[in-house]
Here is the input.
Amino acid sequence: MSNYYTNHGILLETTCPHTSQQNGVVERKHRHILDTARALRFGAKLPKKFWGECVLTAAYIINRLPSKTINDKTPYEILHDRKPEYDHMRVFGCLTYFWSIDTKGDKFEVRGKPGIFLGYPQGVKGYKIFDIGDKKMVVSRDVKFHEDVFIFPDQNQMGNGDDTFIPMTQDVEVQSYENVIKNNHTVGPACGQENVEGPQENVEDTNIGFEPASAETQADPHDHGIGPELGPLEIPTERPKRDRTLPKHLNDYVVTFPPSVDHAHPASTQDTSTVYPSTHFISYENFTHVHKRFLAAITTNVEPKNFKQAMQDPKWVEAMKQEIQALEKNNTWTIETLPEGKRAIDSKWVYKIKYKPNGDVERYKARLVARGFTQIEGEDFHDTFAPVAKLVTVRTLLAVATKRNWFIHQLDVNNAFLHGDLDEEVYMKIPHGFLKENDNRVCRLRKSLYGLKQASHNWYQKFTNALLGLSFTTSKADHSLFLYRHKDVFIAVLIYVDDVIMAGNNLNKMQEVKDRLRDQFSIKDLGPLKYFLGIEVARTSRGLVLSQRKYTLDILEDSGMEGCRPSSFPIEQNLKLGIEEQDPPVDAGRYRRLIGRLLYLQATRPDIAYSVNTLSQFVFDPRQSHMEAVTRVLRYLKSSPGQGILLSKEEGENLVVYSDSDWLGCPLTRRSRTGYLALLGGAPISWKTKKQSVVSRSSAEAEYRAMATSVSEIIWLRWLLHELGVPQTSPTTLFCDNQAARNIANNPVFHERTKHVEMDCYFVRERIDSNEVCTMPIESKLQLADLLTKGLGAAHLRFLLDKLGVVDLHAPA
Here is the structure.
């Protein structure tokens, strides 16, 4: 090496003997690896003879973890210029069963042998397993893992204080792996069979011929690798086991103690490792048997996240096959050779379960989606705009239909986008799983496909023409709403892509419209509305209740907050969040995903609107304090996951609006916050919280800007209600708790404090003079819009929610 250094101009410096502190970087990394290795050994209760595997696995894991010293990249990514994959990684030291071909010619010999997972061999696509029976190391590709089962006894309780490494030939004490499994009764969610193709493989590119694999070749999705002979038998253990109690400092977190299962009632399995189980905060006793069945179906059925997961279930394989057959029957494409100079876009599969009103699965829907984000404007597409139903319109239509006692039904259009005609020349790769070997041809799209930039525009035009041909008219307030009037018959059709709500007062005419639409499109009649855009709809004697229980539970599960301690309010009072340099950053991707999902949860949860809107300001650079505030929102959701809004049948049809502001509420910009809440006969149909675009010089000015925004919403809602047959004959009451702002609205005199908001002044006064709006005072404690402009304590928040008509049908008695 000395010649190499000399030839390349490298000056070599060595450390003095026995002074490791001179090589601090390497010594610190040694400590990091050994600390991780010790944690792996202690967690798996492994004897010290396996110290080498612990160290190798620790290095393997560290090389795949992001590091701030290299700009949050992984050492693996720096070395190989691509991100590592993690799907193949498993819990170190857990019990496994690996496939053995060493049967000595006996066809009836056991093929699955027990072993201990001890890491990842270098250069081999497989797992390193310690064979318990033969006491030797093997490498296997086909392995079933029990990731919460560790069969070695606790080494720290055996009194082994010898630090000498045990030779690999020495036997080790092992608990009976059969008894271990029987005592645990169940395996964790990560348990499953692995066919290791290595992290280099992209499972999305796996081809299965032009026909999907048959159901007989698919793995049983319920097979957890435990045969019937290892069921929950009452067999005494070899070693006594002490009760595992949760330390107090872990009360707010989910820990991984294996839960016990009531095999007589498997559906009621509950993780007893948390002192705050979800069953304490959600109940189904208030629902009919049919609705309970529906809720159970949408809760328990799991939709695949990707092509690999779908291929494990014959139902989804059949769904993909049917989708391809439907596309070919519709002449969606022709198989051609890609012309020179053209490029083909890719596609992906999306999976959705459609339900009947009684909770039965209507169908397993596999949708082929083009990756339209790679299209080029002007070459692959031109017009793209297509309206979808506003959530305010959805709530308003349902509120009106409830008060008028209309029929409310739901339709689903099969392969809606395929009905649109495609004028541009677009090529797409043959879908995953249906590409023949050595076939370089592509699909030339003849009709629109989901995911294409122009697909929604083409479908909207097609469906609009069909409804106009049935004497419907397009709403001027919302172009996704279509109305039919003839004498005393009224029908409203609201479309959101391929999901359709139909409400009306004449069931026979509604059926006629369905039949006429079915002549042009493949339409499924799903009956009375139960589940729309993730919103659960329940009918009560008081009216219609909209909630997002399943969506809330999914958020808690995906964020690991199922067992968190609940909170009685979503955000602390007077909390002023900013960006402090000493506040450490957090995972921006996770923060943005949580905020995005919480934003949609506002569709039925006005109580979290202020909290989520405030936290969404920091998605560009989230810090620890912001993530802690998001955690508070999740803890609040844990306290009432089934909470929703009541669209009451009673209390008339008058529109009432509450307006409020928080002067200088933003500590970063000193801008104020606008909040308004609109109720139709006591039913909340529209709400909004938003930071104002400019700084207000006084609280009156901030309140007046909020009033102007509220009046804009009032004008639109009155327009929409008029089209739905609910005209507002009297001025809409606008409640404001600021006297100065009300005086500005009713007083035509300008002065120095208001001349710069002259446009808003004229806008509001004009609507007051035309008898569309009238301002009214209200006590601050009764101001419902308060929950949209500031953090509230538990008691006042509950008081306002009760006044607003927020209910929780799922609350335990």
